[in-house]
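Notebook B, p. 112. Complex prediction, attempt 2.
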Amino acid sequence: MSQDPAHASAPRSRHRIGLDDQATDGQSARTRIQDVALQLFIEEGYDKTSLREIAEKLGVTKAALYYHFPTKEAIVASLTEDRVVAVAKILEWANAQPRTEQTRQELIRRYAETMRGPRSGQIIRFFERNQATVKDLGAGEAMRKQMVEVMNLLSTKTEPYDVQLRRSLAIFAIHASWFAMREREWNEEEGQAAALKVAIDLVAD
Amino acid sequence: MSQDPAHASAPRSRHRIGLDDQATDGQSARTRIQDVALQLFIEEGYDKTSLREIAEKLGVTKAALYYHFPTKEAIVASLTEDRVVAVAKILEWANAQPRTEQTRQELIRRYAETMRGPRSGQIIRFFERNQATVKDLGAGEAMRKQMVEVMNLLSTKTEPYDVQLRRSLAIFAIHASWFAMREREWNEEEGQAAALKVAIDLVAD
DNA sequence: GTCTATAGCAGGATAGAC
DNA sequence: GTCTATCCTGCTATAGAC
């Protein structure tokens, strides 16, 4: 999952306080960069978030980031790869199933499961808020294609338009529990349970 | 609606072929800029669309654009202002109604009506695909607030989470008919009718 | 109304010291 | 692993001629 050619085991040589030494909470430098970058990508947008800004927030310089990631885009790639693999597995499973209501519901259940990871919700949020930018980012293209494939599994072109639309909204229901209702105050558990319930209903006959 | 202090009636003085003289199809220079800009903002993203690119596509230079719009952001503002006014009117109406199922359905109907204009769908598409960027653009802020207000009118905080989510999805249903299902081939009429049907059902009890 | 030219700045990325 | 310094590019916006 982690393809870091350069420094599989980076030498902890110098005595200066750097990104990698702030790991008193068990977070690697790589992870800290990912967290800060993702947060900024969501709040400010990918384009408007400069590497300088990320570095500043981490207390280092731009150049330091380039030791951990070859490009800005690579940060996004590292963020999304795990989720892409997880969704790909679900799609593989779904493609081998008969196209029944029960399959749709199980597909939704499994898809909703992918939102349980600590960063999953944020990654979706990032994706939704940066669609235009992310679409030629490779990682974004992959996620977009997967979303379309999920929707295509939920309905066929021969079905009425309103059915197609209704079923597709199930995906938005799952995603939306993370971003559409920011104003309101419910906890994660409840939100996800509600989203799953609504989504399941949307794909029912 | 059109706040152009500088050139309410621009003098058609010179003989050179410019933006304003290409109006053989009845489009003003202003309109042509808006159309091209909006299209690029959707396809490439607001940030990544430079004024040079817009100008090039119109066969003029960057500087020419600055005659018609004082800033890049002003183009967005000019694009969204009519819709913001239209939605504001609907919100004003809705706020004066009792919070019944019938009101919700009528609210959805009226909201769906705003998608009938030629550019409305594109503007929503622009908004959705550039959320992160557009959020500190003034125009974007206004639209975001309106969307939240519509959702708040569709459900109250005391209602169960799944009901709140379900009702909020009605808005996405209306919007989605314009962008979520690009892969599939149905005409506008059918798509909007389907969206309205789904949305109405989502706000029903 | 449109042009050329340019100011002024910020971005991503690299080189090389430590 | 992180730094300083810098290259190169592209952006928004402005000045002033025509």
